[in-house]
Design goal:
Elements (H helix, E strand, L loop, with lengths): L4 E3 L5 E3 H31 L6 H30 L16 H38 L1
Antiparallel strand pairs: 1-2
Length: 137
């Protein structure tokens, strides 16, 4: 049973163990990517980033306070372990805009586009029909 062969894509015989390994590699990558995506969804849910905007804004401020020191510590660790000298990066820009206002503006834009979509579709299809009629004469 171990010596059986299957045809590969090129038409040559390939052992079943090779076929199994290729399937395993593909499924392993799928599992890794699925785990990363699942972890990201869990993190967003756990931090309540899709909840009220005040919680999202607080999480953004918390990340702004935590990430720069963590990056500095990591760069120092890399320098210690490898002996490399990493140049000092400029300070990150301060992002201070109300998320609530931009979120609401985005929602208003999408809703207004959806509300005029049927009339615009009718208008564009009428123009298209007139163009086709004019070209077929």
């Amino acid at each position: 049973m171990g010596g059986e062969c299957v045809l590969s894509d090129s038409g040559q015989e390939a052992p079943r163990s090779t076929w199994f390994l290729q399937g395993w590699k593909a499924s392993r990558m799928f599992l890794i990517k699925g785990s990363v995506a699942g972890g990201a969804v869990y993190l967003v849910y756990d931090q309540e980033l899709l909840g009220p905007s005040d919680k999202s804004q607080a999480a953004l401020q918390k990340a702004g306070e935590v990430v720069p020191p963590a990056m500095y510590q990591f760069s120092q660790y890399v320098c210690q372990q490898t002996g490399l000298q990493i140049p000092q990066l400029p300070a990150p820009p301060k992002i201070d805009f109300p998320i609530r206002d931009s979120w609401n503006a985005g929602i208003m834009t999408v809703m207004s586009a959806l509300s005029v979509a049927p009339s615009k579709a009718r208008e564009y299809s009428k123009e298209g029909w007139e163009y086709v009629k004019a070209r077929t004469k």
